[in-house]
Amino acid sequence: MVCQQNRFIEDKGRIGVSNKDRLHRLVEELPESEVSAAERYLAYLRLAREDPVLHTILTAPEDDEQETDEERAAVAEAREDLKEGRVVSLDEAKRELGL
């Protein structure tokens, strides 16, 4: 693995070797067991670029606001409801809402 990483680093500095050339080389060197994962990741990258909603979600800044006392209380109440079994299934909620 170190040898392959060194070759990649060497290629990065070579004139005339494009990013796509390096990417093709990496794909060719992938073990067969990793090809499916690489394909899914590349498809994800393409989709993230083409889908404006997904792109917005993926590039949105992290929520850095502090949780309020009200929010903490609501979460604690929800957890207590869950613990005590005061929950309904999705199907039941849909029926109650007429969906």
Question: How would you describe what is shown here?
Answer:
By secondary structure, this protein is mostly helical. It folds into 2 domains: 2-59, no CATH class; 68-99, no CATH class. It contains 6 helices and no strands. α3 crosses α4 (52-59). It is elongated, with a radius of gyration of 24 Å.
**Radius of gyration computed on alpha carbons:** 24 Å
Number-wise, the strands total 0
Roughly what fraction of the amino acids lie in strands?
under 5%
- Provide a count of the helices: 6
Any idea how many domains? 2
The overall average pLDDT, rounded, is 85
Shape: elongated
List the keywords:
single chain, mainly alpha, 6 helices, 75% helix, 99 residues, 2 domains
